[in-house]
Specification:
Elements: H1 2-31, E1 36-38, E2 44-49, H2 51-54, H3 62-65, H4 67-75, E3 78-83, H5 101-108, E4 113-117, H6 130-145, E5 152-157, H7 172-190, E6 193-196, H8 197-201, H9 216-230
Parallel strand pairs: 2-3, 2-4, 4-5, 5-6
Antiparallel strand pairs: 1-3
Helix pairs in contact: 4-9, 6-7
Length: 231
């Protein structure tokens, strides 16, 4: 009996260890992912953003069901996904995108097209500052516009937020209000086109896996909207 119990304990501990390693790898991969590449023709599109770009709502099938992967299938372009979970545009946010190696690596791509979407995490009450956002996002977008490849740059208004505000969540009122206004101001100043995902996702809570991250259906709707602008 003692031998059986010892064997059982060893098996359980081994399973716990394996599960812990798996979860750790998943968390690390989400925080430090290798950019997802969807191969297409010679036109190179780079998507820069947070967990919505990363494809957190379709974590198990993001290679085919993230909006970047679907966009590649719709356009035939090579699309590279430089999304990072939890990232902010604001420099005093929790994880500023500009401090990540993905930022420098995305610039080094010298792509034909850049599609940029940050702001959902910046809408949290503890971070949001419209004036700072306009200033820092303008400089961020300029860093892509000034590349030698002279890319076409699009800035996207993030999707509708379908989660309750509890003082720490992404805030739908800010996303649909001051954040949308800020992005419009930036786009006008820099003479770039806005792709408004807030409008197309309003009225479609079924497109989201958790109220924030698009599911497969939501990602397809987003990809179809982007394709209208870049094809």
């Amino acid at each position: 009996m003692k031998k059986f119990l010892l064997t059982l304990v060893i098996i359980v501990l081994s399973l716990v260890l394996v599960a812990g390693i798996f979860i750790g790898v998943m968390i690390y991969s989400m925080g430090n992912p290798t950019p997802l590449i969807s191969e297409g023709d010679g036109t190179k599109v780079v998507c820069v953003g947070d967990s919505i770009t990363y494809g957190q709502g379709v974590l198990g099938s993001r290679r085919t069901d993230s909006f970047t992967a679907i966009l590649s299938s719709l356009t035939g372009y090579t699309v590279k996904n430089y999304g990072l979970c939890n990232r902010t545009l604001l420099s005093d946010g929790n994880f500023p995108y500009t401090e990540e190696h993905h930022y420098a690596d995305s610039l080094a791509e010298e792509a034909d097209v850049y599609i940029i979407m940050l702001g959902s995490n910046d809408s949290k009450p503890q971070y949001w500052d419209k004036e700072q956002f306009v200033s820092e996002y303008t400089e961020f977008i300029k860093s892509y516009l000034e590349l030698d490849s002279a890319p076409t740059v699009y800035v996207m208004v993030p999707p509708r937020v379908y989660i309750e505000q509890d003082g720490g969540n992404c805030d739908d009122a800010t996303v649909g209000g001051e954040l949308t206004d800020a992005i419009s101001e930036i786009a006008e100043e820099l003479s770039i086109e806005v792709i408004d995902l807030y409008s197309i996702t309003t009225g479609h809570p079924e497109w989201f896996s958790d109220g924030l991250h698009p599911n497969k259906e939501g990602n397809r709707a987003i990809a179809e909207e982007i394709a209208k602008h870049i094809k």
